[in-house]
Specification:
By secondary structure, the chain is an all-alpha fold. The chain has 9 helices and 2 strands.
Length: 292
């Protein structure tokens, strides 16, 4: 290697070719093997060095080393859109902030929601509401199926009572399950549960995530008013239904079981769908959103 660079140096400094170098650098094509090896080595080293020092928007061309009178040429890339990801070589800094943002995909979902802990917070919000509904179904189901138990059970239903039982179940399935839960309440629960982010949301909101997802606090005034009225109204209806005689209490409880089961399934399905698509099904009704 030392002899190669010595030959190249003598060819540059001397006006005439020496005995070890039968060509000159100012000609078009050098014929000396030692000069060709030396110039090729210099071009390779210069290309490697330029990769660690040049900006990511430029491409270095080693053709400048093939002639003594030419200057180093630098050509621009056609456009920044030709490369999907901006590559920062060595310790070079990007020439503009847009180069760094181009290398990162835009995501509509907040960064905190991708954390497993944040996922658990959202799951606790939606799953807690589903658990409350399932617990109510478990408590009412024995009463709802009481008229259909074995021979040692209570008096069977008459034709009129059986028709009322079926009609009540269909009514609660549409009014409570479809219109109430699937179209209104379940999207609200799913959307509000997805706003729970560890490190951003209050620890009180995460601790009381089921009630937060129901819109009982930290929501718009309209949302809190509706949520509290519905909750207190349901509690009053449950207290009144408990005073009904047999079999009308069983008839009403049968319809309630159908509606709550439909609502629980809609919350679980809505949460899984939002988790897969990354989109919230409804407005979260956070404070201040009604003024926009």
């Amino acid at each position: 290697v030392k002899s190669v660079f010595s030959c190249v140096r003598r060819s540059i400094t001397q006006s005439k070719p020496t005995s070890c170098c039968r060509c000159s650098l100012w000609r078009a094509k050098p014929n000396c093997r030692m000069c060709r090896i030396g110039l090729t080595s210099l071009a390779v080293l210069a290309t490697i060095a330029s990769g660690f020092s040049s900006s990511p928007n430029t491409v270095f061309t080693p053709r400048a080393f093939m002639s003594s009178t030419s200057t180093a040429t630098v050509r621009r890339r056609p456009s920044a859109a030709t490369s999907a990801v901006a590559t920062i070589r060595g310790g070079a800094k990007p020439s503009s902030p847009t180069e760094v943002s181009a290398a990162r995909p835009v995501d509509d979902v907040p960064a905190g929601t991708k954390c497993p802990v944040s996922f658990l917070a959202s799951a606790w919000g939606a799953g807690g509401v589903a658990y409350i509904l399932l617990k109510a179904v478990r408590r009412l189901l024995p009463i709802a199926i009481e008229p259909f138990v074995g021979e040692g059970g209570p008096v069977p239903l008459t034709s009129v009572q059986l028709g009322a039982y079926v009609a009540t179940a269909l009514f609660f399935a549409y009014a409570e399950g479809y219109k109430g839960f699937q179209k209104k309440f379940s999207p609200l629960v799913v959307s509000r549960s997805r706003t729970l982010i560890v490190g951003t949301s209050s620890y009180l909101h995460i601790l009381l995530a089921p009630f937060y997802s129901m819109g009982l606090f930290h929501a718009t005034k309209k949302r809190m008013t509706v949520s509290w009225c519905v909750t207190l109204g349901v509690a009053a209806i449950v207290a009144a239904v408990k005073r009904l005689p047999y079999p009308w209490r069983n008839v009403v409880d049968g319809g309630v079981v159908v509606g709550l089961t439909w609502g629980t399934a809609s919350i679980i399905w809505g949460f899984l769908r939002a988790l897969a698509t990354g989109e919230s099904p409804a407005d979260a009704a956070l404070p201040g959103s009604d003024k926009k």
